Amino acid sequence: MMSARFARAGLRATQFSVARPAAVNGMRSYATSQEVRAPVALFGVDGTYATALYTASSKSSALDQTARAIATLGEALKADKKLVNILGAPTLSNADKKSIVEELAKVAGADKAGIVQNFLETLAENNRLGSLNGVCEKFGTLMGAHRGEIDLNITSAQELDAKTLNRLEKAVAKSEYSQGQKLKVVAKVNPELVGGLVVEIGGRTVDLSVSSKIAKMNKALTDAL
Q: Quick check: keyword Membrane in the entry (predicted)?
């Protein structure tokens, strides 16, 4: 497992600098004569970092390259849950962080002097490596908007196979919810749903989960009594 490699490790960190860095709320932003705006507004720490990475990559004409690297990191984090815990550990030393950054950069295929490498080093410097999983997800949201896609979040109690996800995607694409846009399927697992699905798209939520039905039944019984 990749987490074992991260649990060993050690190396060096530099500065996430694409243009002139300026400190904003404990992270770096970039001032250039050409202003770049993210396609959608994101919130939270991971949203702020994802937006900064998107902006820096756009200014350096490296958006597609960064997107591939971040997508690779996101898949690695999904495949190894222990890795997420390691990144968020409060006991990481500076040597641990440097080592982890090097390993992450290797996984992403990042250039040692490139944006992704520098970005990972900035996360480490600011004790935000634990936010990487969220940053990967939020960056995917930005890229989807950049490509004219709309996220179709499908949450189930157990992992769904590709055939089932494809059927759901086609069904939603034919509905009014898709608004004629290209869909990007994001599958998630939440055992607390017990069964059924929760489908989210364009700010709308369709809750078809068993847990929701049980909650409604319990409320009806409580009101009746």
A: yes
